[in-house]
Amino acid sequence: MQYFMDLVVVGFSIGMVYALVALGISFIYSGLDIVHFAHGEIYMLGAFIGVALFKHTGLSYPMLLIASMVLTGLLGVAIERLFYRRLTRAGGGYTFAGMGMIICGFGMSIVLQNVAYLIWGAKPLPFPVSFGMPLEIGELTLPRSYIWIVGAALILMAALHLFLKKTRLGLAARAVAHNKEIAYLMGINVPMMISVLFGIGCALAAAAGVLVGPINYVQVLMGIGILIKAFAAAVIGGFGNLPGAVLGGLLVGVTESLGAGYLSGSYKDIYAFILLIFVLMVRPSGILGVSIKSKA
Amino acid sequence: MLEIAGVEGGYGSVQILNGVSMRVARGQMVALLGGNGTGKSTLLKTISGLIKPWKGSITFDGQRIDGLRPDLIVRRGLVQVTQGKEAYPGLTVEENLRLGAHVRRDRAGVRRTLERVFEYFPILGDRRNQFSATLSGGQLQMLCIGRGMMSEPKMMLLDEPSAALAPQVVLDIFRIIGRICREGTTLLLVEQNVRMALLLAEYGYVIRDGVVHIEGPAEKLIGDDNVRLSYLGGTVADRDGGKNLRH
Ligand SMILES: Nc1ncnc2c1ncn2[C@@H]1O[C@H](COP(=O)(O)OP(=O)(O)OP(=O)(O)O)[C@@H](O)[C@H]1O
Ligand SMILES: [Mg+2]
């Protein structure tokens, strides 16, 4: 029982990291209709920016997290403006961007890996934030880094929820996600909103990177594995569905952790996909359903 | 208020508008008529900035707006209510209406306009917290018109507000449209319901093959043989039948 609970705690924490990345991917998909294949690298850059800030500034960990989210978000906005948006001119906005956009995403992921390599090198960097002694709750020993992951992720998810449901800009964001033409006719600055949406998606990935950094090393290729798992998570929950992305992330994290603990650690990476295949067999549109939207 | 001069445009390389010229005076209601696929919606989208005109000029309230981004045109007080009752199904009635007020920052004023819309369309007030996906066709049309009112525009472009609605609802909608105009909003009304439109509007344009084919004061168009034959089913318009619409 003790062992089981430990595995669940670890799985749940890692699941929150997957959930944040999956949330970013689903958020960008629901808003811009693009499947962003360079999102793992955004996560990686977020982690590196976090490490760099840790080394060169005296920022506290929460401030570090926020600063990295802001910087990575802005970087994402720049990438979207400079590269992705050009592609949309080929075919009526983001809607039918299709194949070109996917290739561009893959290309961007390779470019960003190499940029990170040139700046930070191939050696994994430590991210030695000290969180203090683990927390003891009855039988359970909780490393504080896990508490940070879960706590920060929940706060970010709640903040995103409140932004979307309670603010004027959030309402506009939902409108843009659903139908850009009508959003324009509401007087919404659609190109600007697209940047905001993309920036938020990237900031979520950066948060995941900064949160996972202290329990892992930060390295150039860390984005590859997470991308695949975050995709599995997003699809399991229902692609483009935001609560679904969170649910999918947690399921992937816990399944993986239990599988590694009870079955075999060397096959750790396949459990997510066994789960994915199982879910898709039972519910092809994911657990909470693919987000449905009208054209445009 | 709105002046269109020699506007050409279309989609991609397909030309739909072949030089449209028309004007709408402040406070006026003008009807824009024409058969299916003649370019009425295309013209409205060109005015509201969703598609850019290739040639010609569009002047609104004394300033050129052709080529401007659609949201900036809305900010100047020109709002389009599209054909096809396009509300956001995943948003509630009130959220849809609040979207219409996106360009406004005065919370109290927005709340007042919201109450005004609920006074125009009481059913929307009753359903303010329901998802708009649950509304009937008529209610959706009311929602779209109400949403257009939310920014308190100087002028509204209405694209076939009576399409595919039950006769009683059509009457309600036209009554409201008349009231919106009387309360000071300039209107350009696209309609298939030609008789109703000409009874309400002061002036009318008939568009065919992307150009203005016939134009004139509404009373004159109702009596016009060409208009009657093409769009009024060939019978003499019963003008008294719709008189009560005027007040
Ligand atoms: N998005 C589009 N892309 C290409 N062609 C289009 C598009 N929308 C409309 N058209 C074409 O432009 C022409 C004019 O269409 P438009 O919608 O302006 O007509 P309309 O007068 O509004 O007709 P209706 O009364 O049926 O609404 C039609 O031939 C139509 O097929
Ligand atoms: Mg039309």
Features:
heterodimer, A: 296 residues, mainly alpha, two-stranded antiparallel ribbon, 72% helix, B: alpha/beta, six-stranded mixed beta sheet, four-stranded antiparallel beta sheet, 10 strands, binds adenosine-5'-triphosphate, binds magnesium ion
Secondary-structure map:
The complex is a heterodimer of chains A (296) and B (247).
Chain A: H1 2-32, H2 39-56, H3 61-88, H4 98-120, E1 135-137, E2 140-142, H5 144-166, H6 168-178, H7 180-185, H8 190-212, H9 222-237, H10 242-262, H11 271-282
Antiparallel strand pairs in A: 1-2
Chain B: E1 2-11, E2 14-24, E3 29-33, H1 40-48, E4 55-60, E5 63-64, H2 70-75, E6 78-81, H3 93-100, H4 107-120, H5 122-126, H6 137-149, E7 155-159, H7 167-182, E8 186-190, H8 194-200, E9 203-208, E10 211-217, H9 218-223, H10 225-231
Helix pairs in contact in B: 3-6
Bound molecules: adenosine-5'-triphosphate (ATP) and magnesium ion.
